[in-house]
Design brief:
Shape: globular
Structural class: alpha/beta
Distance between the termini: 23 Å
Strand content: 5-15%
Helix content: 40-55%
Radius of gyration: 26 Å
Number of strands: 14
Number of helices: 26
Largest sheet: 7 strands, mixed
């Protein structure tokens, strides 16, 4: 996808400094970077690198372009259906494990090279590791004899000080629609990596079938490791007693037996809380994602969102990193959208006052002090300008009649006052398909499905309006429980609302609560995390309410060294199937609400919004 584009993606500013992390996650980035460079060094000389689209962005968060060049990567490309025609005697493919589409593209590249009489050496690097499925796919494509195979154990990619991602983007669909638990094995291995780095998790909480699967597999991996360690023979000379085994600092055994730095992990199956994916968020960062799509910690923006970087080319866009490297963005990212405008106005006024100080300088000392301020303020001025433009664009979207109408229907759904005619009207108005499907799915999950007769009428309306292409998307939505016919049970939404206080009506109340992130809706997943501390019995104190969710719920104690209700504890919250920016903001607010008693390290198999999910399913 071009050297210049890759350079922009890998710019140092796009990599977060990871400041103020609850634990040292920079070591995760450093470890992944070193592993990748070691793999590249196994094949000496210049090489071409073709990578899966889903890995290109995460790669930019762990390694710089100059480092790739220094280790022999001459050119890099996105692995697609079209064959790469660049010359080079070595081609490395970096792909997700057991991805049949990626392996088919690799086979296509090799066949095209053979037709063109290109003589190359090929290496397939599977992320996070090679599996038997990988080997089967290579055999099916009849290229196993043409390639060498390696594994790149990329289990975690830090995106900011409190956000890490395990790049497993199809986890939700694979498990809940296709019945394939492969990514859940990798998720458990990823958690095992964290245990090896930061110590055994004293407490594990899991909700949902995918979460149970991962928790069970994590325990099994730990048992296997313990057995392996205890079974290792100690060789001594005859008559000499065995020497005590020394636990060297930094080794896996030493870390696993040291005081844990993470007090508990909460594993959340995305299917246990579909509401928070479907309800509209109102924080600045979440709305940036909803309108412009944040991809790998940055957005691509140009006219009309911001003035084009090159006035001579009005269609040109630029990449804007979105992380805590920008102090202003760190301050405003989680603000409610209604507070962004006044805050930026105050910031701009302060900057102008500093600029005016130039008129009153009296000597060298004043000038030197002003120059220091000026350099800082100049950078802040650029940031203010960018975010003023972005916020103005978001406000224009929010003022759109269609956007407001969608919010009204959403509010009616959560308060059980919507009519079928209102849903049909969205289709008749030819609203964007993701917007229509989001509202229909919200109605479905709130009401435990849609009556079969009504669902069939809606399905026909969607096909007539958007074409038969929508059928595939509807099937996938039904497979994962987002859009389905009414089941035998009654709607659980009212009971969940009462049990977890999901709808906070008073504006003054919700602005001080985690529900501020959704303007009155408290994300269920974050309420579950909150209840582990607010309820004296934890989840055992709300077992009846938990039984209403996609279960089961589990609480496992691996150690009594540390509990997640202790002051200053670090809690890892791991979303299987993706986490939304609204939930991220709510978790940060929860930490503030608890006065820092718990700090959250937020992890997910991907950053998620309903629109981004629809883009993959259409």
């Amino acid at each position: 996808f071009g050297q210049r584009a890759m350079a922009a993606r890998n710019a140092r500013s796009a990599q977060s400094s990871l400041a103020n992390a609850p634990v040292d996650i920079a070591m995760l980035r450093d470890s992944s970077r070193n592993k990748l460079l070691d793999i590249l060094d196994q094949w000496q000389g210049q090489k071409l690198l073709a990578m899966d689209r889903s890995l290109a962005g995460p790669l930019g968060q762990i390694v710089e372009v100059d480092a790739l060049k220094h280790h022999g990567v001459e050119q890099w490309f996105r692995l697609e259906d079209n064959a790469i025609k660049a010359d080079g005697t070595q081609m490395l493919f970096l792909v997700q494990a057991a991805d049949p589409v990626a392996v088919a593209r690799i086979a296509n590249q090799i066949r095209r090279d053979e037709e063109s009489k290109r003589d190359r050496h090929y290496v397939v690097i599977f992320v996070p590791r090679e599996t038997s499925q990988c080997r089967q796919l290579l055999e099916q494509e009849r290229i196993q004899a043409s390639v060498r195979v390696a594994s790149f154990e990329l289990y975690w990619v830090p995106f900011d000080g409190d956000i890490i991602s395990s790049p497993l983007p199809r986890t939700f669909q694979q498990f809940h629609a296709e019945g394939d638990p492969s990514n859940l094995h990798f998720a458990a291995e990823a958690l095992m990596v964290l245990q090896e780095r930061y110590g055994i998790f004293p407490q594990i909480h899991a909700i949902g079938s995918a979460a149970k699967y991962v928790a069970d597999h994590l325990l099994r991996l730990r048992r296997e490791q313990v057995v392996q360690e205890t079974a290792t023979p100690t060789h001594t000379q005859p008559g000499v007693p065995p020497v005590a085994k020394v636990k060297r600092p930094g080794t896996k055994e030493a870390t696993l037996n040291s005081k844990p730095k993470i007090s508990s992990v909460v594993i959340i199956d995305r299917r246990s809380d579909l509401f928070s994916v479907l309800c509209s968020p109102f924080t600045y960062e979440a709305l940036l994602d909803q309108t412009l799509r944040i991809k790998n910690g940055q957005i691509e923006a140009g006219a009309p969102e911001i003035p084009p970087p090159n006035p001579k080319n009005p269609k040109e866009k630029r990449l804007i990193p979105l992380n805590s490297n920008d102090p202003l963005y760190a301050e405003i990212r989680d603000m409610h959208m209604t507070r962004i405008g006044p805050y930026l106005q105050r910031k701009a006024a302060v900057i102008q006052e500093i600029y005016k100080e130039k008129e009153h300088l009296k000597g060298v000392a004043d000038t030197a002090e002003f120059v220091k301020k000026f350099k800082v303020v100049q950078e802040e001025h650029k940031s203010v300008e960018v975010h003023v433009n972005l916020a103005s664009f978001i406000n224009s979207v929010m003022k759109d009649i269609a956007f407001r109408k969608s919010l009204i229907i959403e509010d009616a759904i959560t308060h059980n006052s919507v009519t079928l005619e209102q849903l049909e009207e969205l289709i008749d108005d030819r609203r964007p398909l993701p917007q229509v499907l989001r509202v229909l799915c919200l109605y479905s999950v709130v009401n435990n499905g849609i009556r079969p007769k009504y669902l069939e009428a809606l399905r026909k309306g969607l096909i007539q309006t958007y074409g038969y292409e929508v059928l595939g998307t509807l099937v996938q939505l039904e497979q994962v429980g987002l859009l389905r016919a009414t089941g035998t049970g009654k709607a659980v939404w009212p009971s969940l609302d009462r049990s977890f206080n999901l709808l906070v009506e008073d504006e003054y109340e919700y602005m001080d609560d985690i529900s501020y992130a959704y303007s009155g809706y408290a994300p269920l997943s974050v309420r579950l995390v909150e209840s582990l501390r607010s309820n004296p019995k934890g989840w055992r104190g709300c077992s009846d309410a938990l039984n209403l969710l996609w279960g089961p719920a589990m609480e496992i104690s691996q150690s009594t060294d540390q509990r997640d209700d202790q002051e200053g504890s670090v809690v890892l919250v791991y979303y299987l199937g993706g986490v939304t920016y609204g939930e991220v903001a709510a978790l940060r607010r929860l930490s503030e609400k608890e006065h820092g008693a718990r700090r959250f390290l937020i992890a997910g198999t991907e950053m998620l919004s309903f629109s981004s999910r629809m883009e993959k399913w259409q």
